[in-house]
Design a protein that fits this description.
Blueprint (H helix, E strand, L loop, with lengths): L1 E5 L3 H12 L3 E5 L11 E4 L1 H10 L2 H7 L1 E3 L1 E6 L5 E6 L9 E5 H14 L3 E3 L4 E7 L2 E6 L4 E5 L1 E4 L13 E2 L2 E9 L10 E7 L3 E11 L2 E13 L3 H6 L2 H11 L4 H4 L9 E3 L2 E4 L4 E2 L2 E3 L5 E2 L7 H18 L4 H27 L5 H13 L5 H10 L14
Helix pairs in contact: 1-4, 1-8, 2-8, 8-9
């Protein structure tokens, strides 16, 4: 098939690698003049790691990332543990792989180039139309290319090709990347968070290393109201640093590395799912078809799983590949979207009631068997089959 992939992020590159290896003729169209990742740290859960393994890059990702065996969060008033999820025994086979987007992008980019994937930079798609002879793609600079047998929309949350209308979430977060400090009491194999009700959340995620830099890194994040970034920038940086340290003294060696407001980048979140993630010779993957907050740590995994299910459907059921892709991802994506919608306000909202339910009802229940095992499966991404009807991920 002749295929166009719009978007050169995780989902786009993963799709390109799989389909190139299947022998399709494809081009990745990237809006940037020089391809680069957008964002800070992320966690590749075990199901996502299986996709990376199928791409032949998991070992590189493990070398660059940090293995996370425990996710732990405390409220600030009494230091009560309200998030306590273990992947398994420390040093075991099951873990979350924390990695900077730049490192994962570099790994996928090198793999795509090694197998000859064609990437066209400076092509920002604005429209796509279908005809009897194929689908065309029009770009911002006025050119139209095609026809293609298939266009894969991997252009992310703001994709101009996706009909998804998402609901803005009231809270987002500012993210920054810092060096992992010497002498900190925090462990480099844990994701740690602190919550002041649901209004303030601060966290540290170990990241491993960046491309061409062997210094261990960490992602520092702090929740903010969706429209609160400008106000935050207008206040003294030292005021925010003091507020953060007052809530969580252990965070001081991380927060003190932030020297400017520009060291922290605002991420805004939305929620929504396309009921039908395809149309005539056009299919949507990743954030172009489902968007959610990062509370369950599934964003990158969803993009990888979408790419896998779509590529496998093209390989094994070419006559109805898009319908099969939609069926394969329906239940997994739907369940995780629903859980993200339900849990997010307990950790990021202005509610005073939901944090009480979180701390005094859900947190105690989370340690009663079999709930811990269910939570582990939830975080790992394996609560339900992630790609029903296609070849299982080994």
């Amino acid at each position: 098939m002749k295929i166009a992939i719009v978007g050169c992020g995780i989902g786009g590159l993963a799709s390109a690698i799989m389909l190139q290896e299947q022998g399709h003729e494809l081009t990745v169209f990237d809006q940037f003049e020089t391809s680069a990742p957008v964002g800070s740290g992320l966690v590749i859960q075990p199901v996502g790691q299986r996709v990376l393994s199928s791409l032949g890059v998991l070992h590189h990702a493990i070398d660059a990332g940090a293995k996370i065996f425990h996710m732990l969060g405390h409220e600030t008033k009494r230091n009560r543990a309200v998030l306590n999820v273990a992947y398994g025994a420390k040093g075991g086979a099951d873990f979350g792989l924390a990695i900077h987007r730049a490192a994962l992008f570099d790994i996928l980019w090198k793999r795509a180039n090694a197998i000859g994937v064609a990437i066209a930079n400076g092509h920002k798609a604005i429209h796509s139309t279908a005809s009897d002879i194929g689908r065309m793609v029009t770009f911002e600079h006025g050119t139209t290319v095609g026809p293609f047998d298939l266009v894969i929309d991997a252009a992310g949350a703001n994709s101009p090709l996706s009909p998804l209308v998402a609901r803005d979430l009231s809270y987002g977060a500012i993210w920054g990347t810092v060096d992992w400090p010497n002498g900190t009491s925090l462990a480099q194999d844990e994701l740690r968070q602190k919550y002041h009700r649901a209004k303030n959340m601060i966290g540290i995620l170990p990241l491993g290393t960046m491309p061409n830099d062997n210094t261990p890194k960490a992602a520092l994040f702090w929740s903010l109201p969706r429209n609160g970034y400008n106000t935050w920038k207008q206040n003294l940086l030292s005021q925010w640093q003091n507020d953060a340290i007052a809530l969580w003294p252990e965070i001081e060696p991380f927060v003190s590395q932030i020297k400017s407001h520009d060291d922290m980048t605002m991420a805004k979140y939305s929620h929504g799912t396309l009921r039908r993630p395809y149309s005539d010779r056009l299919v949507h993957v990743g954030d172009a078809t489902h968007r959610a907050s990062p509370q369950l740590g599934q964003g990158a995994n969803m993009a990888l799983l979408d790419a896998y299910a779509m590529a496998e459907s093209l390989r094994t059921k070419p006559s109805n590949a898009l319908e099969n892709y939609a069926r394969a991802r329906k239940w997994h994506a739907g369940i995780y979207q629903a859980m993200s919608w339900a849990f997010t306000p307990m950790y990021q909202s202005d509610s005073r009631l939901l944090p009480i339910l979180r701390d005094y009802l859900l947190a105690p229940a989370s340690v009663v068997p079999p709930v811990p095992q269910i939570l582990t499966k939830l975080v790992c991404g394996s609560l339900v089959n992630p790609a029903r009807g296609v070849a299982p991920l080994d």
